[in-house]
């Protein structure tokens, strides 16, 4: 599959599936017509979860989150993650970013302003997305087997990794394996697809405390495949759980406090439930290697 075909696929996915937009560029070449609009996270009038969030834009929230992550992850990985956080927040000049944790039902960011600031300072380096940041945190906590990778949908990720010199060649190879697309069947039955993902992820050894939460999308544009469209890291907190995510290449980091794991599952399910299309299964959530049947 050549790059021009891949670019077309990303554009189509953004329009029809809304799928890869979760962690891909908002400015797909064949593009959505909302590229210059403020991006709003999907929400319900009454969310089935309660939470507070921060964009890690002050020392207090950053130190709190760093402490919670470091309790279960390699400290060097956490430091590398916060280097990315601080670089992003500084580059976008804190546009629309919160410091202290505050309650929310949805988040809105001025993507046009953020994108302009980023491009002025970073040029053709698009930054990092959810998969890159999750791997940055988890790479010393997950055992990744030597498998044949399928990185057809990771070309933007890999371009960012190369231009930003984010990972070395070994990490990049393991990244591609972890987030490979997975062959599946032509069905809208989520259970069938979840079993495929469970089988794939069963080959990896995950961290029981710092858990990888993945939103898996169904893609049928050139075959039937499953793909991690969004991903973040969940760790225990003093009064519940903390979920850390990077929304998209352009949109910011979010650290979200939930009372329970189930609230985090509901947040992800609510946010991404419409990221589907005709003939496609609805998105579903994986907690490490297990399907979360909500």
UniProtKB/TrEMBL annotation:
Residues 53-291 form the DUF4300 domain. Residues 29-46 have a biased composition (Polar residues). The keyword Signal applies. Residues 29-53 are annotated as: Disordered. It holds the Pfam family DUF4300. The keyword Coiled coil does not apply. Keywords: Signal. It comes from the Bacteria. Residues 1-28 form the signal peptide. This is DUF4300 family protein. It comes from Streptococcus symci.
